[in-house]
Amino acid sequence: MYSRIILCLPMLMLGCGTQEYSQCEPHDGNLKIMYKPEIDVVPMSHPFCIVCNPTLDAAEYESWALTMGATQLPSSYEDVHPCLYVYTNSNDSIDSVEECTALVCDGGAVYNDMVGTNNGNFDLSPILANP
User: N or C: at which end does the chain have fewer Cβ atoms within 10 angstroms?
Assistant: First the structure.
């Protein structure tokens, strides 16, 4: 019994969370958004709200992140995407793609750190491949 649970856990972690995508209106149309809700069956799971600007070159990552208000920058931009984690002012959970999009596009989002290329919690390729 326990061996089946252990074998199924990776599939649950990867397969149960449906990602949703959005973007800001034309004036901020370069901002693409990915939202992944919390996976109820996975302990310590939490939702992800990510904003990306796939039109940027690596040399532009730092100035974009600073302009967005990021407070934690990497020492090297080789291992990050042109993406930032999105949070609320109150550190509350972001509960939907609509809430995630409103935070980014209407203002009010808090940005902390850039998203590493080795993060295995979600797939950003749909929004990074279509600038």
Answer: N
Supply angle C-alpha 63, 131, 48, rounded to 5: 70
Two tokens, residue 76: 């090297």
- Residue 102 structure tokens: 């409103």
Q: Residue 124: is it exposed, middle or buried by C-beta count within 10 angstroms (0-12/13-18/19+)?
A: buried
Closest alpha carbon to 127 in 67, 27, 53, 48: 53
Tens of pLDDT, residue by residue over 46-87, are 789 999 999 999 999 999 999 999 988 998 899 999 999 999
Look at the block and give the residue holding tokens 């972690």. 13
The enclosing H or E element of 126 equals helix 125-128
3-state secondary structure of 87: strand
Interior/surface letters 74-92, b for 16+ CB within 10 angstroms, e for the rest: eeebeebbbbbbbbeeeee
